[in-house]
Amino acid sequence: MKSPVVKRSIVIAGHKTSVSLEDAFWEALKEIASGRRLTLSDLVATIDSGRSQGNLSSAIRLFVLDHYRGAATQARAQAAGERLQVSSPPVA
User: Fold this and answer.
1) Where does the Ribbon-helix-helix domain lie (predicted)?
2) Phi and psi (nearest 5°) for 56?
3) How far, in Å, CA of 9 to CA of 63, rounded?
4) FRET partner for 22 with CA separation of 20 to 30 A, picked from 30, 57, 73, 92?
5) E-strand spans in 4-83?
């Protein structure tokens, strides 16, 4: 059985390293980088410089998880605000 983890090389701060991630995380990381108008290498370098412990692959997974959790929280808050505006009685 083939592993879903894909190992890829990436250049971070001028040095080449390899990172092993599942395809879903690679795709999400590319999407986030594009949305922030960053290269994949620049985004990974930012993640790398901000991690306090653990390996880079784990730091990337946690970054992606945090990104999408934040987006989901923001979407829920926006939806709740829209429901509140619709259900509020008009002010006289």
Assistant:
1) 6-68
2) -65, -40
3) 19
4) 73
5) 5-12, 15-22
Q: Are the beta carbons of 81 and 74 closer than 8 angstroms?
A: no
Closest by CA position to 69, among listed 57, 79, 80, 61: 61
Phi, psi of 64 (to 5 degrees): -60, -45
pTM of the model: 0.81
- Sign of the C-alpha dihedral computed for residues 47, 14, 7 and 52 taken in this order: negative
Average per-residue pLDDT for the chain? 87
> For residues 63 and 13, what is the distance between their CA atoms, to the nearest angstrom?
19
The DSSP code for 13 is T
pLDDT of res. 80? 79
Distance CA 45, CA 25 (A): 16
